[in-house]
Amino acid sequence: MRDFRDAKAMAQSLRSAVAAKGLTLTHSECLEIAARMLGAKDWNVLAAAIERDAAPSPESPGRRATDRWSGPLLLVRDVVLFPKHTAPIYVARDFSKLAAAEAGRGELEVMVVAQKNESDERPGREDIYDLGTVADVLDMTPFTPVGAARHSALKLTLRGRQRARLFDIVDQGNGLSAQAQIIATELADTTAAAEQVRAAFEAFRTFVVGWPNIRGLSTERQSRLITRTEGIARPDVLADVIAQYAPGSVVEKQKLLELLDPLARLASAAALLSRASALAV
Asked: Please, where are the H alpha helices in 118-218?
């Protein structure tokens, strides 16, 4: 049963329900309605109560309200989006375009989840992965595929933000909506991991400058990527950068996304580079 900590999810459900009836309410209006339904004077008062409740305590050791996320869900066929990475995502299926439009009317956030079989046009819950990435929508433009007579797709520029585990999907006619739990980042001792980080970066540098595997990267962009990556000391962040660029299938990339231990993830990401190097010999 939902309580005041689920106010954002309730607002999302309300907005979807009225949209199905041909009515339009902004995200802010739905938050205000949800706040009043829950007995608060306004959203600001309820938001403050949620923040207070989010602090861990011995009396309520369960998951925190601020770790919950709800919003539009994008199902993607051939890509896994990692946190801290910006990438173009092309969507053409109607339910994905509706979800993108809903993000544009709301908080410009989506949850990106890969499907297990890219040929599925309408995958069910069991046909998509449990873990995905909450991302910010930086840009959204119409896109015309080669051979199409008119715009039939959207190009979204997304910036991955946080891993999240999907626990419910809602479809009320305006695209798929996700209910998810944000996954806290597991930190590693950067001093103890310094040698592993250095070795992984050197392998990545060799990959970027020496191979044509990263299509579309000019010499200038390669240089910027190396410069940006060189100063990364945290193994979890470096692992995600390598994972995004290293060659690998969706299944392999998804395994890296789901690998929460930062040192294990860095080792697995570096292994993809080693495999690519061996194949190139």
From this structure: 194-210
